[in-house]
Every structure is written in structure tokens, then in C-alpha cells.
Write a structure and sequence with these properties.
globular; 13 strands; alpha/beta; 47% helix
Length: 456
């Protein structure tokens, strides 16, 4: 149960806690030195996970871009791995490395067609992809160029197409076998949920055996496919293998999501952690001790063991990163008090620009707002006063791709111990919606204020 910090005046508990936080906070001013303290905390860590309290907030993307640019240029980070689908992100990876047919960043991001497209097809990611291409163009060694990869598993059908396309180039007979195996998924209209529902209801047989057989076949022939030496050939093989692995994991995920929510969540985050580790191992072979920065939602980044998620039997990427990498993993959460956000009302709905209500009493966001600072980084001193203030269960807000303020307490808040979930917090008090590359009329008009006259 969350602890409520009750305001009652200048000397109240909320005010006292806010003064403790303010004393250790490092204001963000837009200066290049803003994230010096965070980079000092990161040190030589191999995995840095940068969160977000929503999938549609401009300032979260902006600050993740700023931090990542410094990690790449100053600390030698080799890749960005995002909470996006593997084949879609790999199209961006090809472009930033100077390969592939896309002419510019906008074309490279067109692979992100699945709802919610605004997560990656937005102005901030477009600018970052352009920066990454310019950075990589200045390097002569392909293996030292920084890449852009996806960790998620929703891309069942896109990954099928990618495996077959790869095999068409390197082994046409194997491509024919892959088509035959993956034909098991054909009747479901390229909709993973339709496949999962049909199998769960007993209408269809699962395709698991065929998916695993194709993965094993691809891995067995891997050495034959590396006919050309060099990083590019190995990178393309990694692309194909991870797509085949994604197909096997997505097949299980879509079957489990209808009867086992906690199990499907755990399968998804294990997939992201395994993909991250495979990427690190791949990069290690070429750059030595590879370092990767991850962009994902706070619900994936913040250690699940310090929240209601753990009590429900759920784990997540941040927990697995700490278990697998220890001190080499740094988890950074992002929070906001109010503003606007790009989100839908229902799954698959249009991207809307919606007003974010002020944070609820008893939340970590309310506490950080009470400092009076517009934007800051908080790296609690071990055993210090700020760590003690945050080492108690407070409400924490999570806005995904759907925002329903009318049921906000039930839909978007859970209890968590921020000091245990994250190594650092970045709070931006007032934020605005991320700008989609395709701006609908609903997004441009935004959401009217609650006092809008309903008679008009």
C-alpha cells in the first residue's frame, strides 16, 4: 500500500520530504553539462537503461537523446536498443550505418507501421536518427559505428518476411522450406492476436513446432551463410537469427496473452533481456567490451521487485539487467507532474494530444513537484536523506500508449519504492506531447480543457 505524504503547511511531511529531495537535486538548465553527474554515476557500466513515464512525452525523448549522444561520443557506447520491434529498428540501423535503400531518416523510420507509430515515428527520433547517421559517417570502421536495434517481440509477421527475405539471398532452397513452415501462420491475416485467440479457443493447432524447426535450421547453417568476411555479413546473420527467435517467442506470447497476463508479460521482458544480451555478445566480438543504451518505458526499466509488479509475480527488463549484469547496469527513471501527452483512448485508436492531469497526492511525482524545481536529476546518495525519503511505497504514474484520465488511479498508478527501482531519476515538472510525424486532426486540435463549455 502506498504511503501518503499529507500537506498541511510549511512544516508538513510533504514539504519536509520535498526539501530533502531539493537539497540533493541537480537542476537541468539545457546546458551541455546537465548530465555530467549522471555520466559520472554511469562510469564504465555496460548497460544503461533510460526510461519514460509515458510513450508520448517530448521531453523524455529529448533528454534520452542528449544522454545517449554523450554516451556514444564520450563513453564509446556501441548501440541504442529500443522498446521497438526488431525488423523495424533494423531498417533504421542499416540507414544510420550507410546501408540499405532509404534516402533519409524519415524513410528509414517508415518500417514502424504497427500501432502506436508515434512511439518511434516522431520528430525527436527523426532528429536523433539523423544525428546518428552523421556520427557514423565520420567513422571509417563499420564495426565501430553505433547501431540502432529493437528488443520487442510483437513483429511476428514482419519477422517471418525478414527471415524469408534473408534466406532468399543466401540460400533459396532454405527459403522455400521456411515459407512452407511459416505457412502455418498464414490464415490469421498477419494479426498475432488472431492467431493466439484461435489457438487458445482450440480452433487451430499451434505453430510452435514449425517455428522452432526453422530457428534450429537457420542456426545449424549459420557458418555456411558467413561466406563473406566482415562485420556486415555477421550483422545480417544476427538480423535473421533474432527474427527467427522473435517468431518463436512471439508465437508463445500471443498464445499466453489470453489466459496468463503475468506469464505473457514475463515472456516479453525475458525476450527483451535475451535479445539485449545477444546483441552485446555480437558487438563484443568486434569492439571488445561493448556498451549499449536502452530506451524503454519505466515499467520495463524500473526494477519490478520494488513495486506491485513483483507482488503480482511479474519481472521486467530492469530486474533482469541487474541480475545478469550487476553494477554494470544503471537504471534511470523519468517522471513528470503535468502537461500534455500523445496517446490513444483505446488500443489501435488515433494518436491524440491529451492533457495530463496533475499528479495524485501520495505519488512520487507530487513529491518531486513539491520541490519547486522545473527540471532536475536526482541521484540519491547511498544511505542519504533523499534515498530514505524514496525508500517507501509511493504511487508512481505510468502512461503507456493509452491514457484514460477519468480512471487514472486504477489505470495509471501503482505503488513502488523509487529508491530501489532506479539508480537515478530525471524529473521534468511540466511536459508536452511528443510530435508524431503524421499529425492527425485530432492531435492538432488537442484536448479541450475540462472547463470547455459542453453546450457549444
Amino acid at each position: 500500500m502506498a504511503v501518503h505524504l499529507h500537506p498541511a503547511g510549511p512544516g508538513d511531511e510533504l514539504g519536509a520530504a520535498a526539501r530533502v529531495i531539493r537539497a540533493e537535486a541537480r537542476p537541468l538548465t539545457g546546458d551541455r553539462t546537465d548530465h555530467d553527474a549522471l555520466l559520472e554515476l554511469i562510469g564504465d557500466a555496460r548497460v544503461v537503461l533510460l526510461g519514460e513515464a509515458s510513450h508520448g512525452t517530448h521531453e523524455f525523448y529529448r533528454e534520452r537523446c542528449r544522454i545517449t549522444q554523450r554516451l556514444i561520443t564520450e563513453r564509446g557506447f556501441a548501440a541504442v536498443a529500443v522498446e521497438g520491434d526488431w525488423p523495424d529498428a533494423y531498417r533504421v540501423n542499416r540507414w544510420v550505418r550507410g546501408a540499405g535503400p532509404d534516402r533519409d531518416a524519415d524513410e528509414a523510420l517508415q518500417g514502424f507501421r504497427r500501432f502506436p507509430t508515434w512511439m518511434w515515428r516522431n520528430a525527436d527520433v527523426l532528429n536523433f536518427a539523423g544525428w546518428l547517421r552523421e556520427h557514423d559517417d565520420r567513422l571509417t570502421s563499420d564495426s565501430h559505428r553505433a547501431g540502432f536495434y529493437g528488443l520487442d517481440l510483437y513483429s511476428l509477421y514482419a519477422s517471418i518476411d525478414a527471415v524469408i527475405a534473408y534466406l532468399d539471398d543466401v540460400d533459396p532452397p532454405a527459403a522455400a522450406r521456411a515459407r512452407e513452415r511459416y505457412a502455418c501462420f498464414t490464415p490469421y491475416g498477419e494479426e498475432g492476436q488472431a492467431y493466439g485467440r484461435a489457438v487458445t479457443l482450440g480452433v487451430s493447432e499451434p505453430c510452435r513446432r514449425e517455428a522452432i524447426a526453422q530457428l534450429v535450421d537457420l542456426r545449424r547453417r549459420a557458418a555456411d551463410y558467413l561466406r563473406h568476411d566482415g562485420f556486415a555479413a555477421e550483422d545480417e546473420l544476427l538480423f535473421a537469427e533474432e527474427n527467427a527467435q522473435t517468431i518463436t517467442d512471439a508465437e508463445e506470447y500471443y498464445r499466453s496473452m489470453f489466459g496468463d497476463p503475468a506469464g505473457s508479460w514475463n515472456l516479453r521482458d525475458r525476450h527483451m533481456a535475451d535479445t539485449l544480451d545477444q546483441l552485446i555478445a555480437h558487438l563484443d566480438r568486434h569492439v571488445g567490451r561493448a556498451k549499449v543504451v536502452v530506451w524503454a518505458h519505466n515499467s520495463h526499466v524500473g526494477d519490478a521487485r520494488a513495486s506491485e509488479m513483483g507482488a503480482r509475480g511479474e519481472l521486467n527488463l530492469g530486474q533482469l539487467a541487474r541480475e545478469r549484469h550487476g553494477r554494470d547496469a544503471v537504471l534511470v527513471g523519468f517522471t513528470t507532474h503535468e502537461g500534455s501527452v500523445t496517446a490513444a483512448v483505446d488500443w489501435g485508436g488515433a494518436a491524440l494530444r491529451r492533457r495530463v492531469r496533475p499528479a495524485l497526492p501520495g505519488s512520487v511525482e507530487e513529491l518531486l513537484h513539491a520541490t519547486g524545481l522545473p527540471a532536475f536529476t536526482l541521484i540519491p546518495e547511498p544511505g542519504g536523506a533523499a534515498e530514505r525519503v524514496l525508500d517507501r511505497p509511493l504511487l508512481e504514474r505510468a502512461i503507456g500508449v493509452i491514457y484514460r484520465p477519468e480512471t487514472e488511479r486504477q489505470s495509471h498508478y501503482f505503488a513502488a519504492r523509487a529508491a530501489q527501482r532506479f539508480d537515478a531519476l530525471i524529473h521534468i515538472d511540466a511536459t508536452r506531447a511528443v510530435e508524431p510525424l503524421e499529425r492527425t486532426a485530432g492531435w492538432l486540435e488537442g484536448e479541450p480543457p475540462e472547463t470547455y463549455p459542453t453546450a457549444l
